[in-house]
């Protein structure tokens, strides 16, 4: 098997070709409660008749070890051997969790990603980061493990809620901000809705693959892909503790990109004019997130668990221009809280 990414109408037939190889003993398909209904029917013609389904509940709150337990119990109960393949059919929760569960089962069985949200198609399914949340911290447990293949069928997006589509678009904007000024400038003029998601997916995947190829284990330049996430994960984690106020991953990253762009201006890395362009575009797509000034210190504290930190130093990825990320920029909890207060004061 190779670890290629196939995008378009050939993706599911190519997956079938892989699954029917003699080296594959059994096929397991991981879905969540939504992808079981909305996406599995399109996959069925490409699966061997004796595949086994494993289902977890939908949503970030189920990206846990308890859901991995469900996967491991099923694999064990069905006597899955090391030649089994796990097909992860879903958004980033399913692809992250399924990759992690597969990597640990009997020290590792092969898995393939069949991403069904825009976010998972442009970002989560590519690059080999897998994991689950733990004690309220995002992706606190995880491994780098490359899938045996990534099969992207953009038609899956037809049933996706527009709020989820926007969430995925945040990661596309992130890719432009760290590495493609021209695409950022073109698309901010065109607006976010398009009838050609395939091209957006192809370009985003190619950009991410280039960065990951240079630094698969995130020792250096891969940290660029974490732009917006030091603050974004802090917001997402905090709001997950507030029932009814949860933000989607991309929504939190969009807010995080505004905060981290503001921090970039404070460092003298980015101009006020560039910050204005970023804010204008972000708020043309995303509503402002709901938190108040009183909560900003508690939110900022979550950054103390960020994976890019070194000891007590919080290392953030900032921008030295539109299309140009810079990693390992130390920031403090107080500065993050200040950036959240800046965000809160903005008129969306
Ligand atoms: N590994 C990485 O590099 C990476 C990158 C970015 C994000 N992530 C992770 O990805 C997760 C977010 O992923 P997400 O935004 O895909 O969320 P998600 O997996 O929760 O999916 C969003 C919702 O859409 C539903 N859904 C999925 N596909 C559908 C379809 N085609 N039609 C209708 N409904 C569908 C899901 O059931 C869910 O309710 C976060 O946990 C984030 O940390 C990982
Ligand atoms: O692939 C990467 O590298 C990324 O950072 C992509 C991010 O969009 C993604 O949210 C990732 O899961 C964040 O990783 P983490 O190491 O901050 O948990
Ligand atoms: Zn992300």
From TrEMBL:
All copies of domain 3-dehydroquinate synthase N-terminal, residue ranges: 54-166
Name recorded for this polypeptide: 3-dehydroquinate synthase
EC number, UniProt record: 4.2.3.4
Keyword annotations of the record: Amino-acid biosynthesis, Aromatic amino acid biosynthesis, Cobalt, Cytoplasm, Lyase, Metal-binding, NAD, Nucleotide-binding, Zinc
Cross-referenced Gene3D superfamilies: 3.40.50.1970, Dehydroquinate synthase-like - alpha domain
InterPro entries named among the record's database cross-references: Dehydroquinate_synthase (IPR050071), DHQ_synth_AroB (IPR016037), DHQ_synth_fam (IPR030963), DHQS/DOIS_N (IPR030960), DHQS_C (IPR056179)
Domain 3-dehydroquinate synthase C-terminal: 168-309
One Pfam family, short name: DHQS_C
Catalytic activity: 7-phospho-2-dehydro-3-deoxy-D-arabino-heptonate = 3-dehydroquinate + phosphate
Required cofactor names: NAD(+); Co(2+)
UniProt similarity note: Belongs to the sugar phosphate cyclases superfamily. Dehydroquinate synthase family.
Function noted in UniProt: Catalyzes the conversion of 3-deoxy-D-arabino-heptulosonate 7-phosphate (DAHP) to dehydroquinate (DHQ).
Nucleotide-binding in keyword set: yes
Subcellular localization, as worded in the UniProt entry: Cytoplasm
Superkingdom per UniProt: Bacteria
């Amino acid at each position: 098997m190779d670890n290629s990414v196939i995008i378009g109408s050939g993706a599911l037939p190519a997956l079938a070709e892989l699954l029917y190889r003699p080296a594959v003993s059994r096929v397991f398909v991981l879905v969540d409660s939504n992808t079981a209904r909305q996406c599995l029917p399109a996959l069925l013609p490409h699966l061997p008749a004796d595949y086994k389904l494993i289902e977890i509940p939908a949503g970030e709150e189920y990206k846990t070890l308890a859901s991995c337990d469900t996967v491991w119990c099923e694999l064990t109960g069905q006597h899955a051997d090391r030649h089994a393949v796990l097909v992860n059919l879903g958004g980033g929760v399913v692809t992250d969790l399924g990759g992690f569960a597969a990597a640990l089962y009997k020290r590792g069985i092969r898995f393939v990603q069949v991403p069904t949200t825009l976010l998972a198609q442009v970002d989560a399914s590519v690059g080999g980061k897998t994991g689950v949340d733990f004690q309220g911290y995002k992706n606190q447990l995880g491994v780098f493990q490359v899938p045996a293949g990534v099969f992207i069928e953009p038609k899956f997006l037809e049933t996706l809620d527009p709020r989820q589509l926007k969430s995925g678009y945040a990661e596309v904007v992130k890719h432009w901000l760290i590495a493609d000024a021209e695409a950022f400038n073109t698309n901010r003029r065109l607006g976010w809705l398009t009838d050609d998601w395939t091209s957006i997916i192809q370009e985003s995947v190619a950009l991410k693959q280039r960065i990951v190829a240079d630094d698969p284990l995130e020792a250096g330049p891969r940290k660029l892909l974490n732009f917006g996430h030091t603050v974004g994960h802090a917001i997402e984690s905090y709001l997950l503790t507030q029932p009814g106020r949860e933000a989607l991953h991309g929504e939190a990253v969009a807010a995080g990109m505004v905060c981290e762009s503001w921090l970039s201006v404070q460092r003298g890395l980015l101009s006020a004019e560039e910050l204005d362009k970023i804010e204008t575009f972000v708020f043309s797509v995303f509503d402002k997130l709901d938190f108040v000034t009183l909560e900003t210190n508690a939110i900022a504290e979550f950054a103390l668990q960020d994976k890019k930190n070194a000891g007590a130093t919080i290392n953030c990825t900032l921008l030295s221009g539109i299309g140009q990320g810079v990693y390992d920029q130390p920031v403090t909890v107080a500065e993050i809280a200040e950036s959240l207060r800046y965000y809160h004061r903005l008129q969306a």
